[in-house]
From TrEMBL:
Glycosylation sites: N136
Post-translational modification, as annotated: Contains at least one intrachain disulfide bond essential for its enzymatic activity.
Gene for this chain: LOC130501606
GH16 domain ranges (all copies): 42-242
Matching PROSITE patterns: GH16_1, GH16_2
Name of this chain's protein: Xyloglucan endotransglucosylase/hydrolase
Length: 312
């Protein structure tokens, strides 16, 4: 590990061999899925010490609406009729893994959007990897939309209804990015895989470093049921929370050989494809919780984009 410590932000790898046995009255399908999650958590490397907000991030929009709490280890984001808010990493990164734990707006959050994403900030040729959490009316599932922009081309939306209430407690959302693939994770469960298909002339984000961003704003013209559900400002202010910020990647500017160094852990063989456990979890999400996939939207694409037949 000594050879890569200088090029990686806060790299501290441990193995957690503890798992809690959960016994409850779930359906066989849910019990099977929970066992997969426990198995994945058992063997996945975890970070030993999440960072404070100020270590890696700065407020970029409406500092009156972002409050550091718990000694700077967490932040509160506020949305009201006057403003939303946002923050960004102090550095940009080229490949690696970024994650944070988020607790979303409870109750009637229709018309609101909370986002966690990476962006190259290069306008028309930007690269971007998005988590967007679309607010809902009380009692409805929260929807997470993911999107991938490469060389300025997006329109690759997928939507998944989360299988839990993300406003009751914190859940981890992560983006893993290397030369071969991008994976979006929710609590270590892969919900999306975007492979490098440059051989099929599909752009892939591998040249531009990206910053890490999070925002909370009003978007009731499209966010909930295509804009049919409007924001209820009588419930404002709306609050979301973030903590356990982590970035592991090649900072730019930084050592020039970092992004191409094959010894970076995220470039290892274990990260070239999903493990068997991850693949089963991924299929479970797609079968039971995916509600939209641009690859199957014939109203937009009479012929599916070439990356859609690439598999995982």
């Amino acid at each position: 590990m000594a050879s890569i410590k200088p090029i990686i932000t806060r790299f501290s790898l441990i193995f957690d061999y503890k798992a809690t046995m959960v016994v409850s009255l779930f359906s066989a399908r849910n019990a099977f899925f929970i066992s997969l999650c426990l198995f994945a958590a058992l063997y996945r490397p975890v970070l030993s010490r999440p960072a404070k907000f100020a270590d890696d991030f700065r407020i970029t929009w409406s500092d009156t609406h972002i409050t550091q709490i718990d000694g700077g280890r967490a932040i509160q984001l506020k949305l009201d009729p006057s403003s939303g808010c946002g923050f960004a990493s102090k550095k940009q990164y080229l490949f690696g893994r970024v994650s944070m734990k988020i607790k979303l707006i409870p109750g009637d959050s229709a018309g609101t959007v909370a986002a966690f994403y990476m962006n190259s900030d290069t306008d028309s040729v930007r690269d971007e990897l998005d988590f967007e959490f679309l607010g809902n009316r009380s009692g409805q599932p929260y929807t997470v939309q993911t999107n991938v922009f490469a060389h300025g081309k997006g329109d690759r939306e997928q939507r998944v209804n989360l299988w839990f209430d993300p406003s009751r407690e914190f859940h981890e959302y992560a983006i893993s990015w290397n030369h071969l693939r991008i994976v979006f994770y929710v609590d270590n469960v892969p919900i999306r895989v975007y492979k490098n298909n440059e051989a099929r002339k599909v752009p892939y984000p591998r040249f531009q470093p990206m910053g890490v961003y999070s925002t909370l704003w009003e978007a009731d013209d499209w966010a909930t049921r295509g804009g049919l559900e409007k924001i209820n400002w009588s419930g404002a202010p709306f609050y979301a929370y973030c903590k356990d910020f982590d970035i592991e990647g090649c900072s730019v500017p930084g050592p020039a050989d970092c992004p191409t160094n094959p010894t970076n852990w995220w470039e290892g063989n274990a990260y070239h494809q999903l493990s068997p456990v991850e693949a089963r979890s991924y299929r479970w999400v797609r079968v039971n919780h995916m509600i939209y996939d641009y690859c199957t939207d014939k109203s937009r694409f009479s012929v599916p984009p070439p990356e859609c037949s690439a598999g995982i």
